[in-house]
Amino acid sequence: PAFAAIIVAAGKGIRAGQPLPKQFADWRGKPVLRHSVETLLEAGAAPLVIAIPENGEAAAHTALDGLAGYTLVAGGVTRQQSVARALSAIESADTVLIHDAARPDLPPAVIERLLGALETHAGAIPVLPVVDSLAFEEEGMMAGAAPREHLRRVQTPQAFRFAAIRDAHAIWAGEADAGDDAQVLRASGGEIAHVAGDERLAKLTFAEDFMTRLPPLRTGMG
Ligand code: CTP
Ligand code: MG
Prior knowledge:
Its cofactor is a divalent metal cation. The chain has 222 residues and is α/β, with parallel strands linked by helices. The chain contains six helices and twelve strands. The longest helix has 11 residues, at 32-42. The protein starts with a strand and ends in a 26-residue tail after the last strand. The protein binds cytidine-5'-triphosphate and magnesium ion.
């Protein structure tokens, strides 16, 4: 089915410490951002709106050289503002996927699971279990333990009925920065389904994340 998509790529990538903002840095032979743009275009995303840094147009066009079918918008100071600006650039859509450029390896099967769950829910997110035990820390010391049974690690892309997430973002605007878009929809009462995430969707955050630990998503490419 047709779906709109947003990729937020307007951050500074400070923690990654790469020579370029991390979304434009190299990952497995091509720019980080290019990976998910190619995957979402191949999956049929239309429109595909990418939030980029102020004055980041040249870097984005270089990273996406030869690709067509995307539009660029200037992002905001926070991730949430970048999403809000990208949502404003979409005139109409039934469903929208919102994705972090910082998660380049996006298995198409995750997209299918998310879109499937949207048939019954206003939102859907990919999650993984927590396998480590969890500790509360105070002053460098263990102050208690937390049960992990009901905790999940949440990834992107996150999928939403377009009108629901657009309205939820408008209501949330001005509040504290949201961790992700599912939190924004949840605050407006939207029901969000969990689907299986994928370890390959790991987010590139720190410099060491750029050291490859998992095999490439697609064999024979990049
Ligand atoms: N992002 C964005 N606009 C912002 C901040 C973040 O579009 N104002 C995007 C980033 O480009 C990234 C995603 O949100 O794709 C997740 O954010 P994060 O991993 O924190 O990336 P950065 O903010 O760029 O990194 P850092 O916090 O280390 O500076
Ligand atoms: Mg950040």
